[in-house]
Amino acid sequence: MNEQKMLLSKIKKYDFTLKELNLYLDTHPNCRRGLAMFQKYRKLRENAVDEYTRKFGPLTPDQVNNSERWTWTDDPWPWERR
Amino acid sequence: MWQYEKKLQYPVKIKTPNAKLAKVIISQLGGPDGELAASLRYLNQRYAMPYGEVKGLLTDIGTEELAHFEMISAILYQLTKDLSMEEIKKSGFDTYFVDHTTGIYPVAASGTPFTATYFQSKGDIITDLSEDMAAEQKARTTYDNILRLADDPDVRDPIRFLREREIVHYQRFGEALRIAQDKLNSKNFYACNPSFDKNCGKV
């Protein structure tokens, strides 16, 4: 696996962890352990996304950081075989 | 994947409930030229699109349509909140009420439930983008008709915003069609299908 794929796979794992915590916290809003875990993974995800967008481009349109060209629409898109 | 943002794209603040208006505006939720059909149309069509710019446009407009779907829902929610039984009966909203109370359910103004027959995904980009341009105009006409029926300024304001978005989307789809045609040989817009035929447009 190349660096881009590894980093993206890491982000997806954080995303899924955060999604699970999100759903759990929706019905357990006072669980301190859940809240602490959410904060922990939110930071880990933030750092991984920063690194990814710096090196490989945006995951969302608001992450485009380029004054020459709009990189949001660059191929490939996630549904394509790579 | 998608992420929800806890806000409306444009504010909806309706002071006076009005079941009669809800009965017609609901067509932009689950009707033939409504926001749900729009969103599903673009988000389904994008897989056949070979060009990055237009994959992006279909994704981004399809996503914006979901925000419009939410705005229409908010309008319907506010128009039907705190209605009296008498208002429900005399407005004709009773035919919706009997099946859904005041829950939000995608139907056309005629009462026909939402159906995927309201849009196409043809696997041919010239065909799809032509449908998209027509769809935006049809939605614009529907908003024009809603504006003919609605006199409450609280309702007209977000409806006018949504109407303007149809015009902007029409404009962008026109450009997308031009981009797609520019990428094909000018003699073969209809000679082959770049999302199916190998080497189509790659001269």
Set out the fold topology.
The complex is a heterodimer of chains A (82) and B (203).
Chain A: H1 3-27, H2 32-56
Chain B: H1 19-25, H2 27-30, H3 35-45, H4 52-80, H5 85-91, H6 94-100, H7 125-149, H8 153-183
GO molecular function (chain B): metal ion binding
Keywords (chain B): Calcium, Capsid protein, Manganese, Metal-binding, Virion
Binding site for Ca(2+) (chain B): 60
Give a short overview.
The complex is a heterodimer of chains A (82) and B (203). By secondary structure, chain A is mostly helical.
Word description of this protein:
The complex is a heterodimer of chains A (82) and B (203). Chain A has one domain. Chain A is 61% helix and 0% strand. Chain A has 2 helices and no strands. In chain A, 2% of the residues are buried. With 203 residues, chain B is mainly alpha-helical. Chain B has a single domain, classed as Up-down Bundle (Ferritin). Chain B is 60% helix and 0% strand. Chain B has 8 helices and no strands. At the A-B interface, loops of A face helix 4 of B.
Features:
heterodimer, A: 82 residues, mainly alpha, 0% strand, B: 203 residues, Ferritin, 8 helices, elongated
Mean pLDDT of chain B: 96
Beta-strand portion of chain B reads: under 5%
Q: Output the helix-strand order of chain A.
A: HH
Distance between the termini of chain B: 35 Å
Order of helices and strands of chain B: HHHHHHHH
CATH architectural designation of chain B: Up-down Bundle
CA radius of gyration of chain A is 15 Å
The helix-and-strand class of chain B reads mainly alpha
Which stretches of chain A are poorly predicted, pLDDT < 50 over at least 5 residues? Answer: none
CATH domain fold name of chain B: Ferritin
CATH superfamily membership of chain B, which one?
A: Ferritin, core subunit, four-helix bundle
Portion of residues within helices of chain B:
55-70%
Biggest sheet architecture of chain A = none
The most extensive interface, with participating residues per chain, is: A-B, 9 and 11 residues
| The first-level CATH class name of chain B | Mainly Alpha
Task: Determine the fraction of residues in helical runs of chain A and give it as a percent range.
Answer: 55-70%
Radius of gyration of chain B: 19 Å
Question: What structural category arises from helix and sheet content of chain A?
Answer: mainly alpha
| Tally of distinct domains of chain A | 1
Number of strands of chain A: 0
Strand residues, percent of chain A: under 5%
